[in-house]
Design goal:
alpha/beta, five-stranded mixed β-sheet, three-stranded antiparallel β-sheet, 5 helices, 8 strands, 25% strand
Length: 165
């Protein structure tokens, strides 16, 4: 793991809100391209349990609303369960080309903390099984470990069963 002192916007925001975190940096190689494989690559690069490393997925509901979902890196979002969790008829993942414009983050470095706007956010219910989880620090190669309670409070987030069986 490489050590860097540079702070990301996510880290600055957590500092500003007085939310304790631990920054983790990993060497970003040209790893696998699929979301699941890349997420597992990140967890492995940091030597962490994939169940504690969450990836950020952004979807748009039938009403046009934007929603943020946090799921363990080895899991897939169940769109039907995700829609139900936010009271939508249906949701579809945002096209990769829209992620930057909507969130301010690039694919692979998207974090629920510090998006352009605050969107309704749902963590998979297993987040509650852990004291702390890992989320993107807002750029590829950086993650932050944050208390689940602090994250849910900061984001006004809920938990629900949102992963595919």
């Amino acid at each position: 793991m490489k050590q860097k002192d540079e702070k990301t916007n996510v880290m600055r925001l957590l500092d500003q809100k007085k939310v304790p975190y631990t920054a983790h940096f990993y060497e970003d190689t040209d790893g696998p391209s699929g979301d699941r494989e890349y997420g597992l690559h990140v967890a492995q690069a940091m030597g962490q349990d994939p169940e504690r490393v969450f990836k950020t997925l952004v979807a748009q509901g039938a009403s046009g609303g934007i929603y943020v979902y946090e799921v363990p890196v080895a899991d897939s979002l169940d769109l039907r369960k995700a829609a139900k969790a936010v009271g939508e008829k249906s949701v579809q993942l945002l096209p990769v080309a829209s992620i930057l414009a909507v969130t301010g983050y690039i694919r692979g470095g998207c974090s629920p903390v510090g998006m352009k706007k605050r969107f309704p956010t749902v963590f998979h219910e297993t987040a509650a099984d852990f004291e702390a989880v890992y989320i993107s620090a807002g750029k590829i190669g950086a993650q932050v470990e944050v208390s689940v309670r602090d994250l849910l409070a900061l984001l006004g987030a809920d938990t629900a069963d949102i992963v595919a069986e």
